[in-house]
Amino acid sequence: MPAALRSWRLPLAAAMLxxxxxxxxxxxxxxxxxxxEMGIGVQSAGSNSFAWLNRFVVQPGNTTITAVRIAFGGxxxxxxxxxxxxxxxxxxxxxxxxxNPLDALVIASASGTxxxxxxxxxxxxxxxxxxxxxxxxxFFAGAIVSYNGQVLVGSLDRDGTDSIPAYPPNQHSFVAxxxxxxxxAPNALALAQGPVAPVGTAIFxxxxxxxxxxxxxxxxxxxxxIDLQPNPIDFGVVDVATVSGSRALTLTNVGTASLTVGxxxxxxxxxxxxxxxxxxxxxxxxxxxxQCELRYVFAPTAxxxxxxxxxxxxxxxxxxxxxxxxxxxxxPAPLVAPAGIDFGAIDVGALAGPQIIxxxxxxxxxxxxxxxxxxxxxxxxxxxxFASCPPxxxxxxxGNSCDLHAYFAPTSIGIAVRDYELVGNTPAGxxxxxxxxxxxxxxxxxx
Length: 447
Known about the structure:
Elements: E1 38-40, E2 47-57, E3 64-70, E4 86-93, E5 105-113, E6 123-132, E7 138-148, E8 154-157, E9 173-178, E10 194-198, H1 199-202, E11 211-212, E12 214-217, E13 226-229, E14 233-239, E15 247-253, E16 259-264, E17 271-274, E18 284-286, E19 291-298, E20 304-314, E21 321-330, E22 334-337, E23 340-347, E24 352-361, E25 367-375, E26 382-386, E27 394-396, E28 401-408, E29 414-424, E30 432-440
Parallel strand pairs: 14-21, 23-30
Antiparallel strand pairs: 1-8, 2-7, 2-9, 3-6, 3-12, 4-5, 4-7, 8-11, 9-10, 13-15, 15-19, 16-18, 16-20, 17-19, 20-21, 22-24, 24-28, 25-27, 25-29, 26-28, 29-30
């Protein structure tokens, strides 16, 4: 590897097992098959800057670029760049039309944040206003991201192509980088610390190649086109009988004509429409490059996964468009083991124990333990201590456990039985255990 590229310490990502998504007309320019095999990023522990771009050629009927779409990170289990991280996307001209971005100059840009990192999902970034280029013109599209640490930023397709239009199968992707805290300058890619170079040369030492998962929207003239982000909307785990924070659904017209949104269905329960959106009441229109927001919340009424769909009708060719909603109704599932302990015969005045009672949470949200109550008796010869469990009140996260220690110190001869309940955010009777033992005199030798 050339000395100028030694800062690229780039790990391979595990192969993705997901099937490629169905091709949609929203991607008029693409050089990937929709499934990543690698995640790439400058692997320095310090401050890094990473530029990644694809080369395209303007096609007849698709001369107006309305949006850039990008997939981020490696696979779902790797150390991917975090969602919400700021970035900028760019279109670059190729002044001498040689297909090499050494002299690339920015002609359009848009700012946004990372979305769908670690998945095969594409995030969209609308260009406002859209950019019209000449047929046959070579240009570049991509992003520059500055970040800290060793994370996977860009998504690479190594094993296939679904090019639209039909590009040759290699040498269409380029990189430039720095790991010295100085961002890569979009109008001076050739001056980056890690100079601009084809992916095959920079990463695979000239022995292989791959294509960045970067796509472009360039619909034919007078074509409205709707883009919905994010889709699906996953609310994650939300406790039953509570309401999640609101999540935004952004509607963007990535087409070349006015988009008229005719109807938007009401969110199906337990998902709810939420205030704070910026979209006008239907019907409303969005100019090319314009966008608005709808907002939704999740209010689960029962434990377990829930799914639903929104339907949006418009004058876009893909109408009606669907947005998937998902979430999990979270509830603790307390485990108390054993449910009963018998200390047997213990001399009056002696102390037996500890006997261990393990508390566990097999649910999807924290088990809140507020108190330990003795049921139906004013006093008890038993003592329960919170050994590895925190002091009351405490929360036991899903999948975690802790121990109680129980002791028996009989004060009279005879059988003692006491029931206890752990009281918190679980139904009555969900977390109980019983302690029993018999007070004896000299081990019953003289009874």
